[in-house]
Every structure is written in structure tokens, then in C-alpha cells.
């Protein structure tokens, strides 16, 4: 029997590994298989356990196969009519902001583009937010404050070329396994390379750490504030770079000297030993090639943006940016968090990396789209959006490819919000999730291996996810469903795409529209991409400027940033602890994260039998000392209570957490057990600048059941 091998991209994490997908000639006699793509620059043939198990997830007994309205199967035509009529009615009666999209870092750039265009250009609302808000919104604002744009400077090669790698708030060994394997390999090749892990927990990533700083939850910024002032004291500043390419250094340094005046005060604030802090400072002094790799442990915080800028300040001060093996590197959690950012898929973005505040941008986008109802200001960010639903301000929400009933903080509030909406539309592959249970209208969506389009990974690399298998039942692409609704609303010509190639080239053309070198991040090279070229697109790093088809490996090599005067900006930072720290009434601080073999709310990975073996039950990690005091034994049931809700989890007694802290993974849903949903416990506290929830910190009580 013969087979076809096609190249596509893994749908799970932000590493964005290339996958060879082998399709047998007869799908009835044989099943597809996957292997790592040797040619893909993210993974060079490797796949982690999640990626390797993709073939096991292709068939599901719980596939949503037909549109449904109020629990009844209906035709697509009827479902689209219902949705468009309701959107039309609420906008007429209550204005454009009574409608909202809640999207996902799982959907493709082309889906994002069309949703953003419909809402911001044609319906007149910027209420387009996404679960990427829970993932990397703080990193976006941090980059924007410092560089004038949301731009990741580094690439994966820099992780292998650096002499010092500082990993902050990341358990990459489990969450970004292929990057972790690349780092392990690099360290083997160059044993002098140092790895420092800054994390309250002793995670699997610490296996390669030369130093682990087990900091007090949320105290990260103090470490970098200390490194900034230490760099000045030790005379390792890059004074030429500071003078020629930055603004605001003195203010940032003065603040660092005030906030973290010395080793003793910093050690006390962050809860690490002076000796460990001094070791880090010493390595920082010596290693010109330093990358700081950070993830959700930094971003999911009420001061996440400041933490990002504390990190960036250190790199700017020492000129460790825009060169091989250097840079502040935010690693996104999701496969297309970056692609969504490129087309404006957040409520505070407009389109093509322009904001509502960008002078002239709103009119420019309106001209390009020939848009009749342009939104004029930022929409509501995820938590605010769900609060507006509960207040009755947002009346219709269209949720796509995400499960906010499990992933957003304070699930009781999310339930109240969805119950209050007049119409909840959910597009999903699965029939039965905690969120589809709240839907009035269900749209059956195509999933990985059926969907077609592009994604952008953490190093800005655009890759194709290819539609290789036929869509089952009545499942349709998300962009198609959006266009059908748009056409019913009277916007036929603007949404008459025949395929994703047409959408992608329009997105490229918008990024280059009336640009003439004024904006630095268009992908104008792709404006005239043919369908054949798009179909055969090989992975390339954004931005792909006109005349530079090879893309852009590293940003800021010329020391020019995207601010009006082309200088990067230092931001003075005052380190603070999380809003909710332990109190006598709530004596424990709960930290959240992931397990090695599951992804998000397990809607796909839960279908792979081999992946459930690693961890088959939700659990809470508790330090042995605390467990003794509370009379809790390993594997016994523990009740966790917070001011927002309750969860019942099995105890895992472990020294990985410090006394007074607990840790629980986020994957389990109400379908497993309502008592297993960890988001029940999390408050809706957000970073004031990014709107990203402080999902890593909840005050809880623990008791044996
Ligand atoms: Fe997929 Fe991420 Fe694993 Fe790569 S590291 S195979 S992208 S889950």
C-alpha cells in the first residue's frame, strides 16, 4: 500500500514543531501516522509525547458533527440565519458592543483575520478577545512599552548559542519539551553553558539547572531589579548602547537602587539565599551572551507587565539584545498566540500590528477594508468581557475553539455571564465540553489535520497547518462560518473568500497598505503570493519584508526600535508581590500549571490513551511539613477552599513546593468532576495594563476530607 506524506505543524504548544503526516491511500484500511519533520527549523525531526500521539486523537466518539440550535440538529443555513438575525437585532437595539468574539490561540491566522475584520470593520465593535489573554498578554505590553511594538527579538538558535540561560516562570521540560531538549543538547555540547531556573517550585526543568532560585511566589521583578543595579555597580553596562539606542536609563536605575538597594533586601523580598543571588549576579556579570526565557509564571500576574520590563531593562542596560545568543525571550504557550497578535486579534489591537492609538491607523484600516462601521476604541479584555456579559452589556458572544468554563478564573462568574447572555454561539470540534454545555448555537468546526492555514510560533516563524483529511459530518472551517454570518448581515463582497490563500494574501496586503517603509513590520513580500506558493510555503520568520523573502531571523540587530525616535525605553519598576498573599484565614498560596502529557482542557489530548498514563487524576502538591500538620496523607482527598469556590483534589506530598505553597494542574474539567476544576479557586484579579489574570496565585485553605 502506498501513502502520501505531507508537512504540517503540531497544534499544541508555542514551539510550533513541524510534523510529517502520512496519509495512507485507503483511510478505511489503514490510519494516518505522524513523525517529526526533519526540515522544520523548530524541531529538526523531534516531537514530544504530545506531538507523537497526534494520530491517536484523529478519531473521537465525541465529535460535533452537525449545527445545533437549542439542542436540535439543524442545517447550516438555519443555524447561520439564527445567529445573523440575533446579531443584527442586538446591535440595532443595543449598539455594536453588545456583540463579542472570544477566540483562541488554537485557531489559525486566517480565522483570526476574518473574525477581527468582521467585528472591528463591519459590526463596529472591538470586542474581539481571545484565550491568548491568559497566556502572553503581559509579554505583549512589556515589549510594546520597551520597543514601541510587540516584537520578540530572539530565535530558538539563541537558546543554544547563549552562555547563560535564565529560565523564569517556565517548566519548559513539560510545557515546551522540544525547546527544552534543544537546550539539554546545547548544554551537553558546551558544558560551560549555565542554566538558571527561577521558579517557586522545583520542576522537571531544574534537572538541567546549575542554579535554582526557589523564589517567593510572584517576586520575580526584584531579582531583575537587583541585576540592573548590580550591573551598574560592577561596571558592566553597555554605555554606548544606552546612549545611542535607549531612553530612560537613569530613572530605571534610580528606581532599582531604591527598590532593591542591596543583596540583603533583595534576598529577603524574594525569599532566596544571598549566596544563590550572588551566584546568579556573578554569572550575569561574566556572560555577555545571555538569554532570559520567560513564560506564564511571569505573565500570569497582577504585575506581569512590570516583570517583563524588569527583565527587558537588564538586557537593554547591558546591550544584550539583537545579537547572537542574547535577548529577553517570551515563549508563548499556544500554537498561534503570535499569529493572532499579527492580525490584531486582541481587544486592544486594531489590525496588522497597529493599535487604535497609532496615529492614522484606524482610518488607514478603514480605507483598506472599505469598512462601513469601524470600531473607534479598544474593546473589552477577557475578564472584563465576561463581567460585561454578566452585567447584561454584552448580549451575544461567539466563542471559538476554547473552553472558558474551565480556563478563565472564577468559573462561577463565567457561568453567570454565559447564563445572562441572550445568545451563546460556540464553534468547536467537540460536542460535549463544559462550554458547549452553555451554548444556544453549536457550530461544528474542523480540527487539526482538517483545517488549513498558517500559525506563527514563539520565534515568529510562520508555518502551514494543512488540511489533509476530509472534514467529518457537517464540520466547516471557522473562517467559512464567520463569512457566512457576515454575508447574511449584508457584507457579501468583503467576505466572499473562496479559500485561505485569499485571506492570507489580504492580510499581507493590509500589513503593507500605504506603508512605504513607514511601519517596520509588514509582510508585504506575501501580497502577491500565488495559491501554489502559499500551498507550498516553507516555514519563515516574520516579518517577511518586501525584497527579503528569507524573513527576519533576529530583530533589533541595528539597535533601531519601533518607537517614534527609534530608541528603546527603560521602564522604572517597583517590584510587588501578588495581590492575594497568604493570611491567617487563607494560609496557603496556590500556584497553577500543567502536567507533562496534557494540553489545556484535554479536549484533544484526553483522546490519546497513552497520554493519560503519565497523570490520570487531578492532584494538589503539598509540602510534607504542611501535610503532617494538617493530617493529610499521600493520595488522600483534600478540600481546597478559596473566597471564590472549592475543589477536591488528591494529595501529592512533595518537596517540590515550599511550605505554605501548594500546586495544582489546570487541565481537569467539570465533565471529569466539578470538584476538579482548579479555576473555581482563582480570583479575577488582572494586571492593570495587560488584563492578564493572576492565575498563578490564589489564597486557599486546605483540609483533609
Ligand atoms: Fe507539539 Fe509543542 Fe511537543 Fe512540539 S513541543 S511536538 S509543538 S507539543
Automatic annotation (TrEMBL):
The keyword Oxidoreductase applies. Keywords: 4Fe-4S, Iron, Iron-sulfur, Metal-binding, Molybdenum, Nitrate assimilation, Oxidoreductase. Residues 3-62 form the 4Fe-4S Mo/W bis-MGD-type domain. Its cofactor is Mo-bis(molybdopterin guanine dinucleotide); [4Fe-4S] cluster. The keyword Iron applies. Belongs to the prokaryotic molybdopterin-containing oxidoreductase family. NasA/NapA/NarB subfamily. This is Molybdopterin-dependent oxidoreductase. The chain holds residues 1 to 705 of 891 of the full protein.
